[in-house]
Amino acid sequence: MKLLSCLLFIFPVFLYAQPRNDWSAFSRVIKATDIAGKKFKLEAAVKVQLIDSTAEAELWARVDKTNKKMGFFYNMTDKPIRSNNWAVYTINGKIDKDAAYLVIGGLFSRRGIFYFDHFRLWVERAKNQFEEIPLPNGDFEEDSLQNWSFFKNPGFKMAQTNDTAFHGNKSIKVDGSAFKARPTFGTNDSVGQYALVNGITIYYELYGEGEPLLLLHGNSASINSFKLQIPELSKKYKVIAVDTRGQGKSGDDGKTYTYDLFAADMNALLDYLHIDSANIVGWSDGGNTGLIMAMKYPAKVKKLATMGANVFIDKTVVVKLVFKVIDQQLKELKNDTTAWAKNRIRLINMLLTEPRYSFDDLKTIHCPVLVMAGENDLIKPGHTRQIAEHITGSTLLIAPKETHDYPTENAASFNKAVLDFFGRP
């Protein structure tokens, strides 16, 4: 189970971490006793007018079981909707055999105007034969929002509108223009800034005072990955938390993603900030980037702590399940034409081809390096040990019983290891 958990972190399939204060939703409840155990298909039309570039909408479906526990659940947060054009989106699933209710609806987050219309539901009565289940007021043509419930959040207002519709004359409009997020790492406007480097905008946040400490997150993640590190590290260091190119709130110019490109971005960012050298913490992809910075831009790296990094990629490096999960992700995304999906595919493809270094290349690194991984990491222990053995004077930590998620699963231990290492003379 812990292995699956960290796979979902590296290759998100179902859920992305999302601050609880920045979203709301609406729903309706359908009795499910007569459709229990059957496959279902939920469809609705959605479009979004972005005010904040990170705003998004989704459909969601959940099964509430007779024992009051949750069954099937999916909310599309791995496929956020940001298009300003009407399009139909689908959730396919199976209703649990002991289902009491099927709950369906829409989800929306951050500043934007969100439109939903034409909810439709089918269940499989016979193999590959789906019957549509009537959803009264599923197209919002009635004069009220009867059958629908709104989860109240002061930043969002939900009402019927005649402004635009996918089907008929009316749709649901959720106005999130007044939404104001409470500061969270990665969306903290009070400390967040943009730098134009290498032809793109890089988003970063600054915390604390002292020697500069650069935080580099993993694939398809963001600054928020380090939410358990920033409060502690910023007590002693000036933390520079960064969204890597094409991720979080940072921009992208369409170039093929490589860790060398990411390293060049970070080198340019440090130049932009007039920082001659920095301590670096790199987790997963961020660890790969950190190692490359230490090889290609040695003057910029004072000390480096890597977590779950790799030097090259093949079946000797990672556990078998990694490639299975990647293949499944690519299959699910291949027919998705959204900008988000296309970017996600580019990031996944990088995992299959990068990095392209050898252990011997690491011999050019001369700064102090802490090489970390979990005992049950996605990266095989032998690979991590080889990294440490090829970096002169490095320190190796294989954290007992930990996984690739060591920084979040045991933040106190991880933070202590990092602070102790950086605190050495």
UniProtKB/TrEMBL annotation:
Q: Which first-to-last residue range defines the signal peptide?
A: 1-17
Q: What would be an example GO MF term here?
A: serine hydrolase activity
Q: Which UniProt keywords apply?
A: Signal
Span of domain AB hydrolase-1: 212-332
InterPro entries registered for this protein in UniProt: AB_hydrolase_1, AB_hydrolase_fold
Give the protein name, as stated in the record. Pimeloyl-ACP methyl ester carboxylesterase
Q: What is the lineage of its organism?
A: Bacteria, Pseudomonadati, Bacteroidota, Chitinophagia, Chitinophagales
